[in-house]
C-alpha cells in the first residue's frame, strides 16, 4: 500500500503523528504500534522509519505535541490580580487538560523508556515548568534566590499532579471534576499560605539537650 510519490517526507511525518495521536486518544498509548500507524496512513512500516528513527521516536514526538498544547493553554491565561490567583488558575488549567485529554496527558508520564530523553524534549519540559515558576518568583521573600521558586513550583506541581491522578484513575472512588477542582484549590491555597510565611531560622534550630 506504499504511496511514496504522493507525499513529501514532511507530510508523511505529520500523517504519522496525527495517526499515532488518534490511536492514543481512542485506545490509549499501550495500543500504539507502528503497524497500526502504517495501516492508518496507508504506508508501509519502512516508510515510517524513513522519517522517524524508531517507534520510541514517534512516541516522544506525540508526547512533545501534548506538552506543546498544554504549555500553550497555560500561556493563554488572562492576567490575574495576584500571584496566588495566577498559580491557582494554572493548576485549574492543568487539571482541566488532564480531564479533557486523559490518554494524551497520561502518556506524557507513563510512556517512559530507558533510553536517554532527547534534549529537544527536555527543553519543552523546562519551558512548561518556567510558566509555573514565574508567579512563584513574584512571591519570593528574597528575589535574589530564584532556586526557591523552582523548588516550590516542583513541589506544588507534584501535589497537583497527584490529585489529578487520584481523581482520574478512581483511586479515591468516584471523584468528579468539580471535587477534584476543589481538592486542587485547597492544596494550592494551603501550600502558598505556608510557603509564603516569613522564615525564621531560629525557629528551625533544634532544642539543646
TrEMBL record:
| Keyword terms | DNA-binding, Transcription, Transcription regulation
Which intervals of the chain form a coiled coil?
Answer: none
Q: Which residues bind DNA?
A: 33-52
> Which InterPro entries does UniProt cross-reference here?
Homeodomain-like_sf, HTH-type_TetR-like_transc_reg, HTH_TetR, MT1864/Rv1816-like_C, Tet_transcr_reg_TetR-rel_C_sf
Looking up Pfam families in the UniProt record yields: TetR_C_33 (PF13305), TetR_N (PF00440)
HTH tetR-type domain segment(s): 10-70
Kindly indicate whether the keyword Transcription regulation belongs to this entry: yes
Q: Mind telling me what this protein is named?
A: TetR/AcrR family transcriptional regulator
Species of provenance? Methylomonas subterranea
Organism ancestry: Bacteria, Pseudomonadati, Pseudomonadota, Gammaproteobacteria, Methylococcales
Amino acid at each position: 500500500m506504499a504511496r511514496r510519490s504522493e507525499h513529501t517526507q514532511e507530510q508523511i511525518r505529520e500523517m504519522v503523528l496525527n495517526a499515532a495521536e488518534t490511536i492514543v486518544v481512542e485506545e490509549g498509548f499501550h495500543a500504539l504500534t507502528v503497524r497500526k500507524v502504517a495501516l492508518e496512513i496507508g504506508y508501509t512500516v519502512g516508510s515510517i522509519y524513513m522519517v522517524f528513527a524508531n517507534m520510541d521516536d514517534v512516541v516522544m514526538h506525540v508526547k512533545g505535541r501534548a506538552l506543546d498544547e498544554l504549555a500553550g493553554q497555560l500561556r493563554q491565561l488572562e492576567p490575574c490580580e495576584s500571584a496566588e490567583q495566577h498559580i491557582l488558575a494554572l493548576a485549574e488549567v492543568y487539571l482541566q487538560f488532564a480531564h479533557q485529554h486523559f490518554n494524551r496527558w497520561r502518556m506524557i508520564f507513563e510512556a517512559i523508556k530507558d533510553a536517554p530523553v532527547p534534549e529537544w524534549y527536555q527543553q519543552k519540559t523546562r519551558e512548561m515548568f518556567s510558566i509555573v515558576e514565574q508567579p512563584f518568583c513574584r512571591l519570593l521573600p528574597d528575589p535574589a534566590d530564584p532556586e526557591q521558586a523552582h523548588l516550590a513550583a516542583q513541589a506544588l506541581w507534584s501535589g497537583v499532579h497527584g490529585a489529578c491522578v487520584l481523581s482520574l484513575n478512581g483511586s479515591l472512588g468516584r471523584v468528579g471534576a468539580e471535587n477534584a477542582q476543589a481538592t486542587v484549590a485547597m492544596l494550592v491555597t494551603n501550600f502558598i499560605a505556608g510557603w509564603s510565611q516569613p522564615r525564621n531560622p531560629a525557629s528551625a534550630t533544634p532544642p539543646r539537650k
